[in-house]
Amino acid sequence: MTPKRRQRLILVLLLLAGLALAVFFTLNALKHNINLFFTPSQIVAGEAPEGVSFRIGGMVQDGSVQRSDSDLSLQFGVTDTAQAVTVKYTGILPDLFREGQGVVALGQLQDGLFVASEVLAKHDENYMPPEVSEALKQANKGKYSDTANEAKQ
């Protein structure tokens, strides 16, 4: 092999190695920054991982908000009309947070309790996050199909 060809080969190999390294770092950064979304039914079914940050969405369950007298912590239920998950949060809630409203929370599942680091409420009476809307439709679809199957039997 001539010295000129060897130099070109080394240059091409270095470029390929640099490209592979850039792809690796990009994919690694994306993997750590992705936020998965789970419904309360999926969490109850055990599909959500423990100790990994993800989002949960649904409606704040009526009568489930329990505020602490000593600090800013509270617990509330999030439901998709089929199942409910208890969420624990410490901090200031959005102004639009209330029972019966759509909510999305970011946090981790710890011993069956969802510990939220951030809580977002819907911003007007007509808007609902697409994930929450789809989860409610799926939960109601399963709920009504179970009722229809029971009626047939």
How much of the sequence lies in strands comes to 25-35%
Level-2 CATH architecture of the largest domain: Beta Barrel
CATH topology of the largest domain: OB fold (Dihydrolipoamide Acetyltransferase, E2P)
Our measurement of the CA-to-CA distance between the termini, rounded to an integer number of angstroms, reads: 80 Å
Question: What would you call the quaternary organization?
Answer: single chain
Rough outline: elongated
Helix tally?
3
Instruction: Give the helices and strands as they follow along the chain.
Output: HEHEEEEEEH
What is the CA-atom radius of gyration, in angstroms?
23 Å
Weakly predicted, low-confidence segments: 144-153
What is the CATH superfamily of the largest domain?
Answer: Nucleic acid-binding proteins
What do you see in this structure?
Residues 144-153 have low confidence and may be disordered. Helices cover 39% and strands 29% of the residues. It has two domains: 1-34; 35-152, OB fold (Dihydrolipoamide Acetyltransferase, E2P) (Beta Barrel). The protein is an alpha+beta fold and 153 residues long. A hairpin with a 4-residue loop joins strand 4 (73-79) and strand 5.
Q: Can you summarize this structure?
A:
This protein is 39% helix and 29% strand. The chain is an alpha+beta fold and 153 residues long. It has a five-stranded mixed barrel.
Which tags fit this structure?
alpha+beta, 7 strands, 5-stranded mixed barrel, 153 residues, OB fold (Dihydrolipoamide Acetyltransferase, E2P)
